[in-house]
Structures are given as structure tokens and as C-alpha cells.
Design goal:
Blueprint lengths: L8 E5 L3 H14 L2 E5 L5 H6 L4 E4 L8 H11 L4 E7 L3 H10 L3 E5 L3 H22 L4 E3 L2 E4 L4 E4 L2 E2 L4 H12 L4 E3 H9 L9 H16 L3 E7 L3 E8 L18 H13 L1
Helix pairs in contact: 1-5, 4-9, 6-7, 6-8, 8-9
């Protein structure tokens, strides 16, 4: 099978010989270019590999594993990063996702799932690079800058997370068109949305909150009940649109929403 993203260049940093052996056989069958590493390497060496993605198990690399993961996330934000780890706790998964990991796979796992998750990350990154050349999108008081993965109002950043930016940019690219939740999920997360997954609604709520605080005179993300969402800059009518989540439902952190998706997909 040839990956839908074209030639994929992948590095795996892991000391789990059983996992690496099985994964390598599947990578050979898929025709991917890959490097297998049993210890950390300098970041400039990762850059020189011209990778699409990195699969890493920080818990297998000893006390410095998490520190190395954080350095990769901070210094190489354009590198797709998937964590694969045995017996991870909720706290560890939240920590990794908040650091900037794109996805998390719990071992033992099927190598086909790992490849699928790498492909999804590579697709999102490829779309992101494509939109960088399009220049900023201006709507109302909002300026969306794909080259910086950020949005601004009056020159001040909204401090969007990567996922929040991808959600906003996907909606804005379809300006005026209603996108169904399933389509939004495919564009932003790269997977088919599992039944009961509320990730889209949770992230819309957080995105709306940041937009309203920065640009209260305008409404940007509009709800179409039972269908999905539409992006269009319209003067605010004095009250923000209700979310699809109940008003009294407690706020959910980005990482928790990610965990919900991951655990649902693995069920």
C-alpha cells in the first residue's frame, strides 16, 4: 500500500525492540523511508533527515526522555510528532499533548494504526504548508496568518494552540459555507469522527471564547444546529451565539479533548 501522503520520511526513537521490529516490517512493506534510533539525537540531525514525522517513546529513553520531547516540540514545531508508549497514565498523555505532540498511541498497538496516525499528521502538516503561501486572511477585525499558525486582532495575537488555529483556518477557508462536524473533524484531526466524540464542539467553544475576548464587536463562528459551523465575520448582535454544549457544562481542556478522541478511536 502506498501512503496517500506520498513518500513519507519517518524516524522512530524507541528502545522497545519488539515494537520496533514489527513496525519496521510494516514500514518496509509500505515503502516508507525511515530511520530507527535507540537514543536521542541532536536536533540539527533530526532537521537534516528532512522528516515528515517522528515516533517517539519518551518513557523508554530514561529520565531525559520527557525533556528531549519538550525540546523537539519547542524547537521543531513543523515536525509531526506521535508518542507511542506502554502503560501511559492520563497525566503523562496530557503532559505530552500539552507539550505539542500531535497524537498519542498506547502500546501494544497494531503497526497499521501507527502508520495511519503518521499519515494523518503528515496530511495536516502538508495542508498547513500549502496555506502558508496564500497570505493572510482578513475578516472583520481578525487577521489569520497561516505562515505563523496564528490569528491577530489589532496586531495582538490570540495565542491560539496549534489545534485551535487549524480549526479556525479550516472554517475560514470555507468562508460562508457550513461545514458539518464530520468534515471539520476530517480536516483538522485527520480521522473519521467516532460516534459521541465532542472534540469539535469543545474546541469551537474555546476558539469562540478567545475570539470574543479579542474582538467583542464581531461574531465569527456561527452554529447551525444539527449540522455544523460556519465562519463569516458579522457585526455582533449584542450576545454571543449559544454553543452546542450545555451552558452549565464545565470547560474542558484541549488535552482532555484530545484524550477523548484517542481513547474513543482505540476502543
Amino acid at each position: 500500500m502506498t501512503p496517500s501522503t506520498g513518500t513519507v520520511r519517518l524516524a522512530v526513537i524507541d528502545t522497545d525492540s519488539s515494537f520496533v521490529h514489527v513496525l519496521a516490517k510494516r514500514l518496509d512493506a509500505a515503502g516508507w523511508e525511515y530511520r530507527l534510533l535507540t537514543s536521542t539525537v541532536p536536533l540539527d540531525e533530526l532537521v537534516s533527515m528532512k522528516l515528515n514525522a517522528l515516533v517517539i517513546d519518551p518513557t523508554a529513553l530514561g529520565p531525559m526522555g520527557w525533556e528531549y520531547l519538550e525540546r523537539v516540540c519547542t524547537s521543531l514545531p513543523d515536525l509531526g510528532l506521535i508518542v507511542a508508549s506502554h502503560g501511559s497514565t492520563v497525566a503523562q498523555r496530557v503532559r505530552g499533548l500539552r507539550m505539542g505532540a500531535d497524537d498519542w498511541v498506547s502500546k501494544p498497538c497494531h503497526p497499521e494504526e501507527v502508520l495511519a496516525r503518521v499519515e494523518a499528521v503528515a496530511r495536516r502538516r502538508k495542508r498547513g504548508r500549502g496555506t502558508e503561501e496564500a497570505g493572510p486572511l482578513v475578516a472583520g477585525e481578525l487577521e489569520i496568518r497561516p505562515d505563523q499558525f496564528q490569528a491577530f486582532v489589532a496586531g495582538r495575537s490570540l495565542n491560539l494552540t496549534r489545534r485551535e488555529f487549524e480549526l479556525l483556518n479550516s472554517l475560514a477557508e470555507a468562508n460562508g459555507k457550513v461545514l458539518e462536524r464530520e468534515e471539520i473533524y476530517q480536516r483538522v484531526w485527520g480521522y473519521t469522527m467516532a460516534h459521541g466524540d465532542r472534540s469539535v464542539d469543545v474546541f469551537i467553544r474555546k476558539l469562540r471564547s478567545k475570539l470574543q475576548k479579542a474582538s467583542s464587536e464581531w461574531a465569527y463562528v456561527h452554529t447551525h444546529f444539527g449540522v455544523g459551523y460556519r465562519f463569516e465575520a458579522e457585526p455582533a448582535a449584542g450576545a454571543s451565539e449559544p454553543d452546542l454544549l450545555p451552558a452549565d457544562e464545565p470547560s474542558v481542556e484541549d488535552a482532555a479533548a484530545e484524550l477523548l478522541r484517542i481513547e474513543t478511536n482505540q476502543a
